[in-house]
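Agenda item 2: zinc ion complex prediction
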Amino acid sequence: MQLRYQFRLYPTPGQQRSLARAFGCARTVFNDALRARQEAHGAGLSYIKDTDLQKQVITAAKRTAERSWLTEVSSVVLIQALSDLNTAYRNFFASVSGERKGRKVAPPRFRSRKDRRQAIRFTRNGFRLRPNGRLKLAKVGDVRVRWSRDLPSEPSSVTVIKDAAGRYFASFVVEITDGPLPEAAAEVGIDLGLTHFAVTSDGRKITSPKFLRRAERRLRKAQQALSRKQKGSKNRRKAVARVARLHARVADARRDHHHKLSTRLIRDNQAVYVEDLAVNGLARTRLAKSVHDAGWSQFVTMLEYKAARYGRTFARVDRWFPSSKLCRACGTVARAMPLDVREWACPCGAVHDRDINAANNILAAGRADRLNACGGTVSPPA
Ligand SMILES: [Zn+2]
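Presented output:
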């Protein structure tokens, strides 16, 4: 399977200028190609051949006065920008036809120099790893990298990213071939909630770490301060930069936390079941912001690819039952359950922690789905 490994880059001021030029050229090619496709569509032609499009927006464009500067950057970067557009269209069409599941994908939109994230991609013939640890990028030079871990194999491509905080990163795509972990006895259901980040069926409640909550608080304050600054003022510019920096730090800390937690859950369990977020009603309520902040989908994505990597079972439980209201002892469904009820007693005598009960119901449903898929039968709770 393919994985991404990301490292911080430290380009010199000269290299930063070359990268800025490459970001700009890739953006121009992407936008020219998008415009060409839209115009073709408007003229009743549904399709332009990729080779024709490449000729038009790269090869021929380089010979014109207003696009001659495209020759200043690596053509690998320009061709990859076209391939990005193709991927964006493919995802959009697959989403429209229903072939692609999940959230609806919007049609490709024009890129802007004001986008929070600028990126270009180099394939095999556009970059090289130097013996001295530098990353050679075509028409940019040898860029300094902070290697925070080893690459497991030769990367097939690298995306160079500049984020809103002005930091540079190299994101390598590498092929991973390591096999499954030794079998584990345990299986686990996970309830993603608001009071805790996650609660597991074995009774563990996981909150986000303190430093992350502190950083999030600082970010909120910085955002409030920003909203009070005069438009166009120097202080506003400073406040924007501060928010971007804090934002990047929070995102990093959160990703790190998700990595540690997902690795542990996959290592300790043979099967991991999570309720399907798409059917989780919370995502559509006024709590949506905190749902988004909790970064569940990032975490669930990590669980999924790590499970595939280490030979574990991962499944989203399509939750047709009210997991927090269903008594896992007797199968009775409690009538109402406002969010502030953390513990409840069933008429059968069982006393439940709301979230641990929900996690156990998710585990049971996940197992049942799996047995059904294997041709087994599931009997309803007695
Ligand atoms: Zn009961």
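Discussion summary: The two ends are 43 Å apart (CA to CA).
Owner for follow-up: CH.
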